[in-house]
């Protein structure tokens, strides 16, 4: 029973640890495996039910704690199941007023270039955004320049390079280093085929992991800064990329409230994009958020391309009516977002 108590205690603490609003990596890392923690709690509850003496008040206390922890995690995970409430409605795809885009963290040291090229050839998206691209990936992706009229290439050897390809006309192009001078992001205005103008924010902030960034401060600041940009932008907009944060984290939810954008995963599924090589440790790290001007036509996670991430694609259509059901920030949350952005900006 000692092992059962130790494991139960650990997973109960791991359930509520992310509620501590500290930016340290050893706190924020517990944001990621919520579904895995839920499964472990349910398994532990089963073991208690089989092996525990119900006449013991202590054992009943352990089981009640496991039940409450499971209920808490279920509430957090439930919106990302097909039974949850959808944030954005689905409509038929119209290529004239729609966009089909593909996002992939290709993993800088992955050399299976052909898998990515084959995927692009098969999907034929309007836009391709690749992150972690170095000079070798830039060279390997040269065939895409024959298929796409516009391309932005920022290869870097620090795992934060970007490659961007599209057949939609780029009418405004800005390359930002929002928080860290070594981490680029894109802000682009594109013309859809019907002449409507939209904005794309393409980002890849740092993860809170030891050896790279001990805190989530910079990541949170970049995500929220882009959220504020999108909220203040009158044009229809999308925020895309590997955000190095899960869909159910406090920061991502705060982003949704600040930006008033919709997450197409909600009410449909988790659509896990990481880790491609370790099935038991998978969660949604790569994101595609839409402003209220869009409705959803398709969302798909694709087969592995040799990276530790799966590629993900989305089809969205501009609509005349609002097809989204978004979250809204209160005064305290707006102030918290401002403070998080300020904290990130002061670090560099």
TrEMBL record:
GO molecular function: endonuclease activity; exonuclease activity
Transmembrane intervals: 6-26, 38-55, 61-78
Listed SUPFAM superfamilies: DNase I-like
Domain Endonuclease/exonuclease/phosphatase: 105-309
Organism superkingdom: Bacteria
The keyword Nucleotidyltransferase is annotated on this UniProt entry: no
Keyword vocabulary terms for this entry: Endonuclease, Exonuclease, Hydrolase, Membrane, Nuclease, Transmembrane, Transmembrane helix
Database matches in InterPro entries: Endo/exonu/phosph_ase_sf, Endo/exonuclease/phosphatase
Protein name from the UniProt record: Uncharacterized conserved protein YafD, endonuclease/exonuclease/phosphatase (EEP) superfamily
Taxonomy of the source species: Bacteria, Pseudomonadati, Bacteroidota, Cytophagia, Cytophagales
């Amino acid at each position: 029973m000692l092992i059962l108590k130790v494991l139960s205690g650990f997973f109960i603490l791991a359930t509520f640890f992310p509620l501590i609003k500290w930016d340290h990596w050893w706190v924020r890392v517990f944001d990621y495996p919520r579904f895995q923690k839920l499964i472990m709690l349910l398994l532990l509850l089963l073991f208690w039910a089989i092996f525990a003496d119900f006449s013991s008040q202590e054992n009943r206390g352990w089981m009640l704690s496991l039940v409450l922890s499971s209920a808490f995690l279920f509430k957090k995970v439930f919106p990302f199941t097909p039974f949850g409430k959808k944030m954005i409605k689905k409509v038929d795809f119209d290529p004239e007023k729609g966009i089909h885009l593909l996002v992939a963290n290709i993993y800088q040291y992955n050399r299976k270039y052909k898998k990515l090229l084959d995927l692009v050839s098969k999907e034929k998206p309007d836009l391709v955004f690749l992150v972690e691209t170095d000079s070798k990936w830039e060279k390997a992706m040269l065939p895409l320049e024959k298929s796409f009229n516009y391309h932005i290439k920022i290869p870097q050897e620090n795992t934060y390079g970007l490659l961007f390809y599209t057949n939609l006309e780029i009418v405004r192009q800005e390359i930002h280093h929002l928080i860290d001078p070594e981490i680029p992001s894109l802000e682009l205005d594109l013309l859809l085929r019907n002449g409507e103008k939209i904005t794309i924010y393409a980002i890849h902030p740092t993860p809170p992991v030891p050896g790279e960034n001990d805190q989530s401060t910079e990541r949170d600041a970049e995500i929220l800064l882009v959220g504020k940009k999108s909220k203040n932008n009158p044009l229809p907009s999308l925020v895309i990329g590997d955000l190095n944060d899960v869909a159910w984290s406090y920061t991502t939810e705060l982003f949704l409230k600040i930006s008033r954008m919709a997450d197409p995963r909600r009410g449909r599924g988790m659509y896990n994009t990481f880790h491609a090589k370790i099935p038991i440790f998978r969660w949604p790290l790569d994101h595609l958020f839409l402003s209220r001007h869009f409705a959803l036509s398709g969302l798909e996670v694709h087969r592995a391309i040799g990276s530790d991430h799966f590629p993900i694609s989305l089809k969205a259509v501009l609509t005349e009516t609002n097809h989204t059901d978004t979250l809204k920030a209160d005064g305290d949350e707006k102030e918290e977002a401002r403070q998080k952005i300020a904290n990130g900006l002061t670090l560099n």
